[in-house]
Predict the 3D structure of the following.
Amino acid sequence: MARTLKREYRNALHTALVMDGAISAMALGDALIGGDITSGQLLRERLDVELRLLDDLAWTPDVARDHFELTLSDDQLAHAARRLHRVGVDLVAEYDATDVDRRTAEVEAGREVGLKVVLLTHLLLRDIEPDEPVEDLC
Amino acid sequence: MLPIECRIPYSLEMKTALLRVCVPMMRELGEAAVAYPEGNSWELGGPAGRAASAIKVAEWVEWTFTGYAGEHEPVIVAPPEELLAAIDHLEQFIDRRFHDLGVKQACAGDKRGGDAVKVIVAVPVEHVEAVQQLVEAQTVCEALRRGVDAQVALWTVDRERRDQLQPQVAEALTFYAAELHDALTQADSLLARSHGESCADLIVALDRLDWDADDPQENTFGVPAESVLEQLVESNSSTAAELLKVLRGDHEEED
């Protein structure tokens, strides 16, 4: 059965995905320029899955839809979920590392996104790979 | 393996000949399932594989015996490996039917090392029409196989052309990956999507040409998609321009 995300969680995942997709794209370009074939091929997998996930979630941040069907295979989704779990953890860690009086609205929003992404990716990974441990669960 | 789809035009006669074999191939599975209700893979595997191929072929030619289902030009669009596997199954089934109908065949081999060819030497008189239909289907299978081979040859680049194209594709991917990064960072989703599509096409092109510029793992390489070749032509790639001409059949017009 296809997995479907509600808009609230899709929005959080979309934010994390755009952040990570930008990093993947830049890293792929760097690997190609540096002639690093091994990294290039790993990043190729990563970017390909992220682009497909963006197709599922819709590219524009604001979309007039309440549900988003995930069409990636289990392997692809697990691959993306593991990456995005890390992004979510980093967003929460950034909030924790920021002094209380320096926590801007952006940092606060980042924490909200991070928590949702961590929860969602954790649930996805438990659903796809029930026997695999999920690292860094906040 | 070439990650491409071939496009083989077919006539109404070809379609009819194929469907006349596909329908009994599907029936064969039903008969096997009745004969072996507790059947294991040994008893049902063969008929099931052939029936699956028959369904694919029937879908590729749009099922109906009479006329074409759509307005468009009748073309089988399928991955070459899948189409060749289905042709194998059709030929396997035709061979079995020849045997069931008591058709006598003999091998007319080429003594200089060519493949032996089976020829029909005797047909029971009551099965002449059925055998004729099977021969028609066999001829269509051969034509399809030749069509696939020709297209696969067309979509394959030699090492020299590959060595010219690979760095151009890698350079284009580097450029679009940087553009994608910028568009995502600036939250320009429309531009990001467009660059994302370019990256995806170029990634597939690099898969076909091999990521390792100097030491590719394969000896044959798939032609990049037309959209990628068009991009490379804009960057003054004469190799891409030549390939684009071949793919579009422009060379035949010039001849």
Residues 16 and 87 of chain A are 6 Å apart (CA to CA).
